[in-house]
Each structure stands twice: as C-alpha cells, then as structure tokens.
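$ ./design --mode recover --in tokens.txt
reading tokens...
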C-alpha cells in the first residue's frame, strides 16, 4: 500500500533543496579517528563546503557528528542511515539532515516522521517513483556512475521531471562539472574531497584546497527546488 505524502513534507523538501544548493558538492566523509573530526570540518568549511555528510560507517561517527556540528559554519548530517532505529541517535548527535544509500517504506516513514530533512537514495525509476509518491522530490542517485551516471540522469529528465538529484558514488573532481551541468542535478556528493592519505596525515591544507576547488564548481543551469 502506498502511504500518502506526510504532513510537513513540503517544508522538508524545501530544506533539502536549500542544503543541496549551499554548495555544489557535499563531501561524503568517513571519520575513523575522532581527533580528525574538528580539523576536517574546519578545513572543509574554510574551503567553501559547509554541508557535510558524515557516514555512520565508523565506530566514532555519531561522536564525530556531534563535534563537527559545533564548528562554525558547518551544517552536518548523517550518511549511511539504513535503519529506522538509527534515527534517534542521529538526532541526539545533532545531525541537521540524513542521507541513505537506498530506501524502503519503513525507513522512509521513520525519516519523514522524524522531521529531519532526508535525502534518500534511489537507483531505478521504480524506486524514484516510490519516493516521489511520498512527496520526496530530492533524491540521491546511488551508486551514480554504476547505475548509469550522466546517461541515466539525462534519460530520467523527461519522464521523471519532478525529481532533482544528488548523484553520489563514483563522482570525481573531473566528472563533477558535467554532472552539475545537468538541469536535474542539484549538487553532487563524493569522497574525493577527503582523501584517506590526507586525512591520515592530518594534511588539512590539502583538504581545504580540494574543498575550495570543489566549491568553485558552479551549477551552469537553473536549479529546481
Ligand atoms: O555511505 C553511504 O551512505 C553511501 O551512500 C556511500 C557514499 O555515498 C559513497 O561511498 C561515496 O562515493 P564515492 O565518492 O565514490 O566514494
């Protein structure tokens, strides 16, 4: 059975659209060592990327979100939200948004009920239409380059013209500009801004430089909301 769009969905969609257009790139971050959290967030914000997706893929992820959320200018969200029972912890950590690699009805219901802006992943037209039926017009295309990348986004533009995407998964500094040039792309997500060797070396200057280069990529077409 298809649930109707939740109350408050429009406000949530507007906030997701706002977050997705604060900068062209949302860094997808894995924090392995809590001491890296604050300097990493500071470097990314200094480089011009305020919206940070911290994946729940490490043991310290929730603590990292809590620390990074206090960095001036940072808007920190939780990535890899795959179960409804993670949402309370994500809220307690101070996450301002949630991202998932995919979606299923129980997760969508819990996310919408939470009121926390939610950017769910989809990989097929059917999954996208299921999200759209819940009022979710802003979606993460994941894993973007595996499921069709640029060609897929172009193919979706007419039949699913209501949807705006944040392609993530396999997007690079080199390919991001082309993704961003598509009218149904709001922003892109990617881990290239926080390369593991730089993080492990505490090379925050490199992270800041990569963030600055990413922030300089501009949407070349009109953004939907
Ligand atoms: O953890 C999640 O929730 C994910 O969806 C996975 C991330 O989006 C990708 O790991 C980022 O992809 P890359 O930029 O190719 O590294």
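writing sequence...
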């Amino acid at each position: 059975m298809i649930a109707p769009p939740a109350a408050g969905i429009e406000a949530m969609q507007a906030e997701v659209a706002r977050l997705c257009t604060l900068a062209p790139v949302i860094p997808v971050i894995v924090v392995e060592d809590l001491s890296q959290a604050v300097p990493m967030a500071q470097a990314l914000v200094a480089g011009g990327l305020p919206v940070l997706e911290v994946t729940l893929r490490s043991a310290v992820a929730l603590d990292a979100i809590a620390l990074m959320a206090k960095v001036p200018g940072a808007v920190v969200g939780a990535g890899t939200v795959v179960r409804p029972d993670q949402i309370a912890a994500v809220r307690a950590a101070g996450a301002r948004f949630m991202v998932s690699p995919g979606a299923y009805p129980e997760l969508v219901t819990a996310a919408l009920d939470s009121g926390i802006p939610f950017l769910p992943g989809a990989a097929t037209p059917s999954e996208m239409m299921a999200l759209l039926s819940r009022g979710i017009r802003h979606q993460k295309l994941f894993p973007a380059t595996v499921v069709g990348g640029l060609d897929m986004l172009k193919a979706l533009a007419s039949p699913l013209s209501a949807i705006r995407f944040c392609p993530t998964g396999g997007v690079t500094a080199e390919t991001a500009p082309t993704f961003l040039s598509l009218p149904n792309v709001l922003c892109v997500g990617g881990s290239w801004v926080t390369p593991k060797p730089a993080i492990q070396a505490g090379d925050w200057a490199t992270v800041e430089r990569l963030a600055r280069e990413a922030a300089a990529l501009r949407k070349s077409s009109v953004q939907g909301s």
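exit 0
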